[in-house]
Amino acid sequence: VQLQAFGGGSVQAGGSLRLSCAASGRHVYTYAVGWLRQGPGKDREFVAGVTWRGDTNYSDSVKGRFTISRDNAKSSLYLQMDNLKPEDTGLYYCVANPGVVSVRSRYWGQGTLVTVSS
């Protein structure tokens, strides 16, 4: 499984960004996929995940502001991030896992940097 994330950038607080991830590999459409992030001086943390059936879950810190979606036909994953806050700054990783998405997910893409200024 290979994952490649796109769409990071710099934005002011209150702004929006959309991250995309292209996934390839056998059976990847059956895996749960999602996003993790690592802020400056922080541990990696779960952001959002979606199962192969389309069930979603979010960390409490982003619930109501971020929306995760997947398009199995395009082997793509998206994260719409609205009302961004400075504490959302970090390196965002696209991940895939046969089970639920977590910091112990099996497959990781390279990170894409999101910077939110106040």
- CA gyration radius, whole angstroms: 13 Å
Number of strands: 11
Structural class: mainly beta
Q: Could you give the order of the helices and strands?
A: EEEEEEEEEEE
Tell me the span between the first and last alpha carbons: 37 Å
**Which regions are unreliable across 5 or more consecutive residues at pLDDT < 50?**
none
DSSP strand content: over 45%
The number of helices is 0
Task: Choose one word for the global shape.
Answer: globular
DSSP helix fraction: under 10%
Main sheet: strands, sense, barrel: 7 strands, mixed
Mean pLDDT: 96
Explain this structure:
The chain has 118 residues and is mainly β. The protein contains no helices and eleven strands. Strands 2, 4, 5, 6, 9, 10 and 11 form a seven-stranded mixed β-sheet that branches. The chain starts with a strand and ends with a strand. The model has no long low-confidence stretch (mean pLDDT 96).
